[in-house]
Amino acid sequence: MEAIEKNQSSLSVSDMSIMDRPLVSIVLPAFNEKETIAIMVDSLIVELRKAAFNFEIIIVDDGSTDDTFEVSKKLSSRYPFVKAIRFSRNFGKEAALLVGLKAASGEAIVSMDSDLQHPPAIIHELFKKWQEGYKVIHAVKENRDADSILQRGRASVFNLIFNWLGGINLCNSSDFMLIDRCAANVIVKTIGEKERFHRGLAHWIGFNQTTIPFRVQKRHDGSKSRFKFKALVKLALVGIISFTSVPLHLISISGLMVLVVGLVIALDAIASWAHGTTFSGYATLIMVMLIIGGFTIFSLGIIGEYIAKIYEEVKNRPVYIIESTVGVEQRWNL
């Protein structure tokens, strides 16, 4: 009897120590990932069981047209700590990240891609930095070997423009990151924007931040990224317009420069007329009209993007619509 009581006591202490462990949440946005999502979850579980944390895994199906959600439901039935959310249609990765942050219960939240390009083994380094006191830890690509030359070029140009206009160095940020609960609450509860740029917001909120490098892996199924060029352009516009008004200031400066050029041409014409010389006006007039016309159209386009951003915000439509969930409590509060 004494031996049994001792065993029960030791089990009780062990159970209590497990319950006292911090809870971490892993958020996996997924779109048409039926071939990789189970492999990703299994790989994560192997790594998470090595860590001294309790954990949950939240799969956000962004309106997939394949059986991603069906696979996710099977994973949830096999592992009680796996939860799944399905959108009614494709609302985009930014919306998936937002609902993942809302659904997460952990003291720390790790967001990562579900196609195995973000290696699960790196989460230990994220946890280590978190325990050192950092609130936002970005896993930054140290290589882009898995990307084409065109993809690397696009990323470099976008990062350069965003850094110049918005003052945020995206070379040191990534969607693969760990966010402490206090930082996540700011993004979810304080910031009310509809169209979001998660990487930019994670950098903008401040707190104690750091980075760790990682090597990008190839997609497990060998396919190319499902993030289309059109979506990248839209994300770039949202990011720039959401974080800076510099393009509007550039329009003012450019308008002043055009005015100065116009005044110089006018003074040259007056001087030519005063000296009785013929002023070659046709070619100059055409050139000036083309410059002013092109500048005006371009300026209207930039202003239109900012107005469109305001229009999208004031419509107050939901960022996403949830079709179904598995294992997620308080579904309609998400």
TrEMBL record:
Entry keyword set: Glycosyltransferase, Membrane, Transferase, Transmembrane, Transmembrane helix
Subcellular localization(s) per the UniProt record: Membrane
A GO CC term assigned to this protein in UniProt: plasma membrane
GO molecular function: glycosyltransferase activity
Keyword Secreted: no
Membrane topology, record value: Multi-pass membrane protein
CDD domains associated with the record: DPM1_like_bac
Protein name: Glycosyl transferase family 2
